[in-house]
């Protein structure tokens, strides 16, 4: 598995491609929810914890499940995010928060940590397709 991180270039965002739908088939919806719970647990202890408003562990878990709705949808599953939260418009939703290139690196490190348990059960090509998606998605989210 290649967890390399693309360099950020403020004047260029590479094209983003959705993950292989077979990623979700292998991970399952519950597995995606577990992945996002691990990811948010890492964020809660990370250097970018300050991006989140003063919320407790229960609210962090709720944020993880909202994020899982988004990733389930992006990976070809049901449109939970649209049904529960409206159109994603992720850049607009994150505009109030300071997302820097350095913060992006911390975000990706937490995602890598959360993905490691899947390495033995998910086809490497599908896992790589998910990583490639979040790698470029994270570039698109930088706003400061």
TrEMBL record:
Transmembrane segments: none annotated. It comes from the Bacteria. Pfam families: Bac_globin. GO terms for molecular function: heme binding; metal ion binding; oxygen binding; oxygen carrier activity. The keyword Metal-binding applies. The keyword Cytoplasm does not apply. Keywords: Heme, Iron, Metal-binding, Transport. This is Hemoglobin-like protein HbO. It comes from uncultured Sulfurovum sp. The lineage of its organism: Bacteria, Pseudomonadati, Campylobacterota, Epsilonproteobacteria, Campylobacterales.
